[in-house]
Amino acid sequence: MKKSDGKRTEKLIEELGLKLESQIERGENPFIEIPIRGSANVSFDENLQRIVLGDKKAKRFLFNVSHARRFMQTLLVASYVKKDLLANDLTATIRDLYYAKKHTIPGTKEDTIDEQSESNLAIVDLEVALNTFREMLHLRAEPKGRMAGKVVIEDRVRDKVDLIDLSRMGSGGWAIPSIVEQIEFKKVSVDFVLVAEKNAIFDRLNEDKYWEKNNCILITTAGQAARGARRLLQRLSEELKLPIYCLTDSDPYGWYIYSTMKYGSMALAHESERLGCPKMKFLGMSASDIEHYNLQKATIKAKEVDIKRALEIKGYSWFKHKRWQEEIDKFLEKKYKAELQALSSKNLQYISNTYIPEKIKNEDFLP
Amino acid sequence: MSDFIDEEELSKQFREYSVAEFFKRNRQMLGYTGKIRSLTTIVHEAVTNSLDSAEDARILPDISVEIKELPDGHFKVVIEDNGTGVPKKDVGKAFGKLLAGTKFHVLRQKRGQQGLGISYAVLFAQLTTGKPTHVKTGMNHRVYECDITIDVKSNQPVLSEEREYSENFRGVRIEMEVAEVDYNRSEYGVYEYLRRTAIANPHAQITLTEPSGEIVVFPRASTVLPKVAEKVLPHPLGLTTADLIEMAHSSSARKISSFFQNEFSRFSAEKVRELSELNKSIDFNKTPKSLTWSEAEAIVKSIQQLKWVAPETSVLIPIGEGQLVKALKSILKPEELKVVERKPKVYRGGIPFMVEAGIAYGGESGSVVGGVRKFEVLRYANSTPLLFDAGSCAISQAVKEIDWGRYDLGKIEELPVTVFVNFVSVYVPFTGTSKLAVSPEEEIVSEIKLALMECARSIGVYIHTLQHAREEEERRSVFIKYIGEVAVCLNDLIGVDVEKTRRKLEVIAKERTALADESGGVEEDLVESDEEYEEE
Fold first, then answer.
1. Which residue has the higher pLDDT, B305 or B348?
2. Where is pLDDT greater, at B475 or B290?
3. What is the least distance, in Å, from the CA of B525 to any CA of chain A?
């Protein structure tokens, strides 16, 4: 993160403080203006191919019973970011922040923050209120996701600069940090990126030297992708113009993980612009793959909640593409789902040696 | 006490013994049962006489009651008033003869309806301690004093230690020594009886000296004298057996038939004929003095079966809304009070009655239970407090049937609330001989409910306002507690002065609390359900 970024964030926070001060001076009920996050103010932009936040804003007042606590918590976050992080050029996890600002309010039995989920929400509130994003606040989530491939990158920890060869990361791969802005791609000799939702698939493909044989970068997001992994994918797609193929289980949760990486999410709609990866393609596993590869015997019966989630997703405007509607309809008709590991019913290396190469060769993707 | 009385046994005894002996054997039905209650009955008899006497003479009553515990466990009871006094020639009859008709058949809405008069208290003292009652009475600067006992066999007063002298004393002072009684501040005791009497008689000043030496003053709340009830003959429907015996035995009429026609209202010759048709065994030509208990009982029963022209409503004497408000304010010092006086209605197809009711909240309303003021119901019939037999009373039933929750008075048992109900009628339908509960007739219960519901609406609005204010205060305290944190944060952000900012915010908080909800609608859906998939 560049020094100038820190200065910019500092200025934004000071502006917020000055605005509040002048409200108080005028004897007004102090408020913070916060864009509304939620279905009422979130939409899918066809042209930009991402989920975007609308311009509806709400005022959060100090003197309103249902706002007061969150108002205070939002200021606690701002104070921590400015005084503890930016001023010392430090980054912290959102859990660090939770512990740093959690204390009993003098004269009461109430804590400033009860659960970390409260401060997490206050952090996002501040991000959107300042029209900035988490990394700019010097806050990071737990790092999640790993990577391997024929790439050399440069990373920095404050003043220390490391050159890292991602082809020499052993069985575990390189852990993707939660902030990836500082990373520079030095030597890249790959043709595409393969991102898997599951650790198990990464491990399988890594063991099979898939990335080496197929000249690609291999990434696991370990479930729903964290910001670091999403931002990195975007950079790989946009800075290096690499095609990105996604692998998830064949079920509504897999679809949604894919769509979050590709278009962004409702909760973090304000960050779609820098986290979205609209050129990503869905390699598998699709419902038609189950038939094509004769995996019916390895399927799992869909549960009530899967059906419900599928119907929800069918209604999202970023799933309106005909191919996706057909995919979802097929799921609703067959009422079964399948894990990527279902391919192991053929043989252990079937996914590495047959399934993925075949799909890529035939360009058998979902949009 | 049980209201069950073996009527056969009772009438047999009444024939066999003198009235005094009759009392000795039946004191429970006269209110002399239980130590606390006996003392209350004595005080009641004397205080009732005092109030009636002052009312007759259009005097504002000053009544003092003193209860002293003597070393031998006996109690000394002294009651003094500033009424008209009793003429010397009537003293024996008034204090020393049972069923003497001291009120001379009070030809109007009677105040005292329980017990059978002060003579019974004199007899009670005599029977429990063997001591005479000392009476001092004065009028026109002449004072007469004597000791009184009752010759139990002949039911005649025995006067001794008589003294007469000049002194500027007006009124009656009674001093008696009694045993088998006790004093406490329970809801059946003298304190509570006088408190309730004071509420129903705002024109009276009542002073109580308790055995502990504590002096309690129930101050006069109003100098307006109550309206004097019109003197009308009693209506036959209001008669009880004891009333009838008392009236008949002191009547100067020669025949029972003329006694009824002359001394009751709505009692025509035709009605006497109808009555005798129903009671062929009774000789209506004999002197009323010879009327026996069982005959009187039979007559009272048949009176209920005949059709009567209703009594006049003009004889109803309520305490009055204004007077009641003054009294309740003076005694209960409530935060909020509502009094309602209903228009006269009739029950049993013709007997007029009316209900006045009040609900007081806060202050000294409610009775103290374990240091906390809780809900109480003050029941009255013709302004006389009903202390016992609450369970079977129309007033209790009405209170029970009301859905208090509708008026924001849901947990009324826990609230500092006094419910006041006065049932006013020439004829009060008591449930038993003890005359302490109004019979729960449908029309009566319904009327009481309407009165109380009107009061409850008004009190409910007050409580609602109160709750609103409390909520506002709570809301403010929510803000106040966050103000400190916010001020410190603003100091971190732009270096404002923490103390100054805190003070400014407190000022805004106070101004804003009332409008605290002015700008809702932000919280609605800041966060969508997919947050859970967003790994942090």
1. B305
2. B290
3. 5
Q: How far apart are the first and last CA of chain B?
A: 75
Indicate the residue of A17, A106, A266 with minimum beta-carbon distance to B494.
Answer: A17
ipTM: 0.78
Topology of domain A3-140 in CATH is: Arc Repressor Mutant, subunit A (1.10.10)
With 90 as the cut, is the pLDDT of residue B22 above it?
A: no
Copy the structure tokens of residue B222.
């109003």
Which residues 153-172 of B are in CB contact (within 8 Å) with A?
none
Q: Residue B19, SS3?
A: helix
Name the closest residue on chain B to residue A134, using Cα atoms: B536
Chain A: closest CA distance from residue B515 (Å): 9
Q: Which of residues 468-487 of B touch A (CB under 8 A)?
A: 475, 478-479, 481-486
Cβ contacts below 8 Å, chain A against chain B, sum to 157
Catalytic hit among A99, A210, A245, A256: A99
Reported for A303-307, long-range contacts at CB under 8 A and 24+ positions apart, including other chains, are A306/A251, A306/A252, A306/A337, A307/A332, A307/A335
Q: Residue B353 sits in a domain of what CATH number?
A: 3.30.230.10
Whole-number pLDDT of residue B99: 63
Which chain A residues touch B489 with a CB distance below 8 Å?
A: 72, 75-76, 78-79
Cβ contacts of B503 within 8 Å, gap of 6 or more: none
B341 with B403, same domain: the answer is yes
Q: Is A350 a catalytic residue?
A: no
What average pLDDT does range B138-154 have in this prediction? 89
**pLDDT on residue B310:** 72
Query: Which of B440, B463, B486 is where one domain is finished?
Result: B463
pLDDT > 90 fraction of chain B, expressed in percent and rounded: 44
Whether residue A65 and residue B475 make contact (CB cut-off 8 A), yes or no, is yes
Closest-CA distance of chain B to residue A282, Å = 19
Averaged pLDDT in 10-residue chunks for chain A of 367 residues: 76 95 93 86 90 89 87 96 93 93 89 93 93 89 90 90 94 92 92 95 93 95 92 95 96 95 89 92 92 92 94 93 95 94 92 93 93
Contact between B78 and B66 (Cβ < 8 Å): yes
Smallest Cβ–Cβ distance between A37 and the set B485, B494, B526 belongs to: B526
Q: Which of B490, B511, B518 shows the shortest C-beta gap to A17?
A: B490
Is B13 exposed, middle or buried, given 0-12, 13-18 or 19+ CB atoms closer than 10 A?
middle
Q: Which domain holds residue B276?
A: 236-305
Report the mean per-residue pLDDT for chain B. Answer: 83
Instruction: Enter the CATH code of domain A192-361.
Output: 3.40.1360.10
Q: State the nearest Cα–Cα gap between B319 and chain A, in angstroms.
A: 49
pLDDT value of residue B12 = 55
Decide: A283 and A359 in contact? Cβ < 8 Å: yes
d(CA A199, CA A205): 10
Q: Which residue has the higher pLDDT, B90 or B218?
A: B218
Among B311, B322, B343, which residue's Cα sits nearest to residue B428? Answer: B311
Whether B392 and B456 map to the same domain: the answer is: yes
Answer yes or no: do B93 and B180 share one domain: yes
**Residue partners of B380: CB distance under 8 A and separation at least 6:** B196, B200, B386, B420, B421, B422, B423
pTM confidence score: 0.56
Residue among B357, B359, B377, B372 nearest B460 (CA): B359
Is B508 at the interface with chain A, CB within 8 A? Answer: yes
CA dihedral A77, A83, A87, A91 (to 10 degrees): -40
B327-349 per-position pLDDT tens digit: 999 999 999 999 999 988 888 76
B-chain residues within 8 Å CB-CB of A14? Answer: 493-494
Residue B507: closest C-alpha in chain A:
A27
Answer yes or no: do B493 and A75 touch at CB < 8 A. yes
